[in-house]
Amino acid sequence: xxxxxxxxxxxxxxxxxxxxxxxxxxxxxxxxxxxxxxxxxxxxxxxxxxxxxxxxxxxxxxxxxxxxxxxxxxxxxxxxxxxxxxxxxxxxxxxxxxxxxxxxxxxxxxxxxxxxxxxxxxxxxxxxxxxxxxxxxxxxxxxxxxxxxxxxxxxxxxxxxxxxxxxxxxxxxxxxxxxxxxxxxxxxxxxxxxxxxxxxxxxxxxxxxxxxxxxxxxxxxxxxxxxxxxxxxxxxxxxxx
Length: 241
Known about the structure:
The chain has helices at residues 2-8, 34-38, 176-181, 185-194, 198-211, 216-228, and strands spanning 48-49, 71-72, 81-82, 88-93, 100-107, 114-119, 125-130, 143-150, 162-169, 239-240. By secondary structure, it is an alpha+beta fold. The strands form 2 sheets. Strands 1, 3, 5, 6, 8 and 9 form a 6-stranded mixed beta sheet that branches. A 4-stranded mixed beta sheet has the order 2-4-7-10, covered by helices on one side. The longest helix has 14 residues, at 198-211. The two termini are 26 Å apart.
C-alpha cells in the first residue's frame, strides 16, 4: 500500500482508508436528475489529507483561500466503478509551487502496483491523470486503491499533501456497448450515473464542458454533479495540466 512506499523511501507513513464500493446497478429508467443519480447515501466527504506539519503546506501557494488544499473528485463512499482498463482520475489542486505529482495504484492484494511521477504546471484547477497504456490494466471484478501526492521540495515527505481513492472495474452487460453507441454524450453520462459508473460519468461530463466551455447547459450539469457530492466550491475551477 501507499504508506509502505513512503516508509520504504524513509519519509514517513500514510495509510489508505478502505472505502467500500457498491455493485453496479441496472439503468432501465431515464435519470431525472444528475444530482439524484450521484448523491451518496450519507454526507461523508471524500478522504483528503494535507500533511501533519505546516512546512509541508508551504508548497500550497494559496492555502489561505483553499478550504481543502487538494481533494479527489469522488463520491463519498459509493458509485466508484469503471468499465475501462485505463480510466481517468480527477483531483482538484490549489495553486502550488510543486511541479510534480506522484501517482500510485494497486489492487486489493497490494499487487499489480503502478507508480509514476507526472509534471504539473502548478496552476490551481482540476487535474486529470489517465492510467497509461503501459501500466497494468485494471482487471474486471477487482478493487483498487490509488493515491496522488504533491511533490514539494523535489521529494515526497511525511507531510506531503495527499489524496486517496478507490475504484472497481465492473463487467459490462453483453448489450451495453450497443446501447452506448446509440446515445449522445449527455445520454451516456446519464446512463453511467444511473449505473454507478462514476469514472466514465465524470470523464464524459468533463469532456463536454471542456469542448464547449461557454455552453450553459453543460456548466449547469457540471455544477449540479459536483455540488451533489459536496464539491460546490470547485464548480468554476478550470482544467489544468
